[in-house]
């Protein structure tokens, strides 16, 4: 009797899990396995993976050229995360402090960019920042500058593009945390002698840390491997690791090497995320 | 009501001439407007040092807003607040020598009990050793030293309440503000904490300002109570004064149980006034402020201050033949509802004998009895 119930329960769980598990195995685990295998292969003249198996691709990836690209990508992504966080916190705070009937409208406005294709939005941003684009025209018209500023094709342009694209992913989790924040806590901190700054740092920030962590991961991880933004805002002059991978699978036609870099990127991002969570955990413990 | 409340709280302050201008907290003509609505409406009160002072009233009466203005979370629209004889003006909460026990406790969830209690001392820049010592002392004061390492969510409501108390008291503020701190506790725990709070207040010698809507709580704990309604402080006085000499119908009704008999004042002589009901009976009670001959007034007489007799002289004051309507035995007393003409009156007879014979409670519904009470046990209130 008990066994029959347990058996049925197990079937139920299996039934519930099957669609998701099936999806993950076929479209994530298997391709990853393929990439893993290819990463140890060599390429023929046309770029297709062929045996023999070796560690050559990984050796090549640790060349200083690629190592620097890795570091640069991590650095830009870190900057993107920090800048996004600094911009998003006040925005999320403002929305969370708005009257209830306004909040959903404001959150809706934050999500509106998702309605337009990301590529189109990035082109629009590129257009705005062009040498003869609206920003330069306006600044010249106002007499602020004489010659147009060349904003594109710089690391800053890539940073602006990334921050622009990732903002909603930071604002939403931050808002979720801030909306739940009990303002009596802030008052209690002030009541106990903390000025605004210390009430924020000692009470509000630690209590909203889950949102900060979630938002940061959501922004950091896609930024490291970003491709479209780097391509369009960097104007081909700024190289990040995502662009290297794309070229290995494209023009350079070296699937094995592209696979090796992809897997290394995955490992690096996973380690970075783990370190980040470990650092943040101290703050999150009691929440 | 403004005029009626002024003499009552001005009087004791003048009596104590040495302390006449030395108060823990002063509110002078404080108004707080939210849009058009006055949450606090020209409130003046003087709270003495080491006093247990309660703000008592129904929800929305302005008691919490008053407390928040003293704490500095709200600023008065007009009027003046002084703490320890220093005008507060725009002084932010973190520079006021007061601490608050919040209704929700507002304990920091990411800090242990010890860290919560130490927070205020750290903000003040007290050195580590002293912080540790005083934190320990405060936890001993609320009898929780063994739980210093716990997080708030690992504690019961009563324990959290005590941590909140320790976290405020450790700073040795001039004034402790308590916003319905026992509201979330069950009845038994609440009664225990009432006594504990009162004892604690004597022990630490700090002025407590206590916001509550529970009249029994206020009467049990307070040295003085301010009864608030619709933003106004109607009466300020000791529990005894408030209960025995309410200065208006609202206070008489809000504190304890009472019977109201509406009528017209036919005579005011000395401390007493005679009131005539529309049905013709006359009653005599203590006169209170604003009662004038010829005006409408209300006689307020508490149910425990009247007697029911089998026989009485109909010529005595406040003595009329009545009909018993219903009887309820509630242990300590018997609650009788009687009819005097169309007027319904509650009378509580104390059960001073111990008997199992129901006939010993000699009145039965439908029977006649004589109602009587002394003029000094009733109050004639204006309006």
| Helix and strand sequence of chain B | HEEEHEEEHHHEHEHEEHHEEEEEEEEEE
- Counted up, domains of chain A total 1
CATH superfamily of chain A: MetI-like
Q: In angstroms, what separates the terminal alpha carbons of chain B? A: 11 Å
Question: Which regions of chain A have little confidence, pLDDT < 50, spanning 5+ residues?
Answer: none
Task: Considering residues with a beta carbon less than 8 A from a beta carbon on another chain, report the largest interface and each chain's count.
Answer: A-B, 23 and 28 residues
CATH fold naming of chain A: MetI-like fold
Spatial ordering of strands, largest sheet of chain A: 1-2
Helix proportion of residues of chain B, in percent? 25-40%
Principal-axis shape of chain A = globular
Oligomer description: heterodimer
State the CATH architecture of the largest domain in chain B: 3-Layer(aba) Sandwich
Whole-number mean pLDDT of chain A: 87
CATH architecture of chain A: Orthogonal Bundle
Highest CATH level, the class of chain A: Mainly Alpha
- Report how far apart the termini of chain A are: 42 Å
- The overall pLDDT average of chain B reads 88
DSSP strand tally of chain A = 2
| CATH fold group of the largest domain in chain B | Rossmann fold
Offer a quick outline of the entry.
The complex is a heterodimer of chains A (287) and B (383). Chain A is mainly α and 287 residues long. Chain A has helices at 2-38, 56-61, 64-97, 100-111, 118-129, 134-141, 155-180, 183-191, 196-207, 209-224, 228-233, 241-249, 255-284; strands spanning 42-43, 49-50.
Structure description:
The complex is a heterodimer of chains A (287) and B (383). By secondary structure, chain A is mainly α. Chain A contains 13 helices and 2 strands, in the order αββαααααααααααα. Chain A has helices at residues 2-38, 56-61, 64-97, 100-111, 118-129, 134-141, 155-180, 183-191, 196-207, 209-224, 228-233, 241-249, 255-284, and strands at residues 42-43, 49-50. A two-stranded antiparallel sheet of chain A has the order 1-2. In chain A, α12 (241-249) packs antiparallel against α13 (255-284). The relative contact order of chain A is 0.13. The model of chain A has no long low-confidence stretch (mean pLDDT 87). Chain B has 383 residues and is of the alpha+beta class. In chain B, the strands form 4 sheets. A 6-stranded mixed β-sheet of chain B has the order 6-7-8-3-9-10, sandwiched between helices. A 5-stranded mixed barrel of chain B has the order 11-12-13-20-14. In chain B, α3 runs parallel beside α5. Classes of the chains: A mainly alpha (287), B alpha+beta (383). The A-B interface holds A 182, 184-185, 187-195, 198-199, 202-203, 206-207, 283-287 and B 71-73, 92-94, 98-100, 102, 104, 106-112, 119-120, 123-124, 151-153, 167-168, 171.
């Amino acid at each position: 009797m008990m066994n029959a119930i347990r058996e049925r329960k197990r079937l139920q769980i299996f039934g519930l899990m099957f669609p998701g598990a099936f999806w993950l195995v076929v479209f994530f685990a298997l391709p990853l396995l393929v990439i893993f295998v290819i990463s140890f292969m060599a390429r023929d003249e046309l770029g297709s993976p062929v045996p023999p198996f070796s560690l050559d691709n990984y050796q090549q990836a640790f060349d200083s050229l690629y190592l620097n690209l890795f570091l640069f990508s991590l650095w830009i992504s870190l900057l993107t995360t920090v800048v996004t966080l600094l911009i998003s916190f006040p925005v999320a705070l403002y929305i969370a402090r708005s009257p209830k009937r306004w909040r959903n409208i404001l959150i809706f406005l934050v999500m509106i960019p998702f309605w337009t294709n990301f590529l189109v939005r990035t082109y629009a941003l590129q257009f705005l920042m062009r040498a003869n684009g609206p920003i330069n025209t306006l600044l010249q018209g106002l007499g602020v500058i004489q010659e147009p500023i060349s904003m594109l094709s710089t690391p800053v342009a890539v940073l602006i593009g990334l921050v622009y694209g990732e903002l909603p992913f930071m604002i939403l989790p931050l808002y979720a945390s801030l909306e739940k924040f009990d303002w009596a806590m802030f008052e209690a901190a002030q009541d106990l002698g903390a000025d605004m700054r210390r009430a924020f740092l000692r009470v509000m920030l630690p209590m909203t840390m889950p949102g900060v962590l979630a938002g940061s991961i959501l922004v950091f991880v896609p930024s490291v491997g970003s491709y479209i933004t780097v391509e369009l805002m960097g104007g081909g002059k700024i190289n990040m690791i995502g662009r290297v991978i794309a070229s290995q699978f494209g023009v350079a036609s070296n699937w094995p090497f592209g696979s090796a870099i992809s897997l290394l990127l995955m490992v690096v991002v996973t380690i970075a995320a783990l370190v980040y969570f470990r650092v943040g955990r101290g703050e999150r413990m009691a929440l | 009501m403004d005029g009626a409340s002024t003499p009552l709280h001005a009087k004791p302050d003048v009596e104590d001439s040495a302390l006449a201008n030395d108060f823990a907290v002063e509110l002078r003509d404080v108004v707080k407007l939210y849009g058009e609505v006055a949450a606090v409406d020209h409130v003046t009160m003087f709270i003495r040092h080491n006093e247990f002072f309660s703000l008592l009233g129904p929800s929305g009466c302005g008691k919490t807003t008053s407390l928040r203005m003293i704490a500095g979370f709200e600023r008065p629209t007009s009027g003046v607040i002084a703490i320890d004889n220093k005008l507060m003006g725009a002084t932010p909460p973190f520079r006021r020598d007061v601490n608050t026990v919040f209704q929700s406790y507002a304990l920091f969830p990411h800090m242990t009990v010890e860290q919560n209690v130490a927070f205020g001392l750290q903000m003040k820049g007290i050195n580590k050793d002293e912080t540790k010592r005083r934190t320990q002392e405060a936890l001993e004061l609320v009898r929780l030293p063994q739980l210093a390492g716990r997080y708030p969510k690992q504690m019961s409501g009563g324990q959290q309440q005590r941590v909140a108390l320790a976290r405020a008291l450790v700073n040795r503020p001039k004034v402790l503000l308590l916003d319905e701190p026992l509201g979330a506790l069950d009845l038994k725990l609440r009664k225990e904490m009432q006594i504990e709070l009162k004892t604690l207040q004597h022990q630490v010698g700090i002025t407590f300002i206590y916001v509550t809507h529970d009249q029994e709580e206020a009467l049990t704990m307070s040295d003085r109570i301010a009864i608030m309604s619709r933003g106004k402080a109607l009466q300020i006085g000791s529990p005894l004064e408030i209960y025995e000499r309410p200065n208006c119908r609202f206070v008489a009704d809000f504190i304890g149980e009472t019977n109201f008999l509406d009528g017209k004042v036919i005579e005011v002589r000395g401390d007493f006034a005679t009131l005539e009901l529309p049905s013709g009976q006359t009653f005599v009670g203590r006169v209170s402020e604003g009662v004038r001959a010829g005006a409408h007034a209300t006689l307020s007489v508490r149910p425990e201050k009247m007697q029911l007799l089998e026989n009485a002289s109909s010529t005595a004051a406040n003595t009329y033949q009545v009909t018993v309507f219903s009887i309820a035995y509630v242990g300590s007393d018997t609650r009788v509802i009687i009819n005097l003409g169309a007027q319904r009156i509650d009378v509580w007879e104390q059960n001073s004998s111990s008997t199992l014979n129901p006939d010993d409670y000699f009145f039965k519904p439908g029977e006649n009895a004589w109602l009587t009470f002394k003029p000094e046990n009733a109050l004639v209130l204006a309006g």
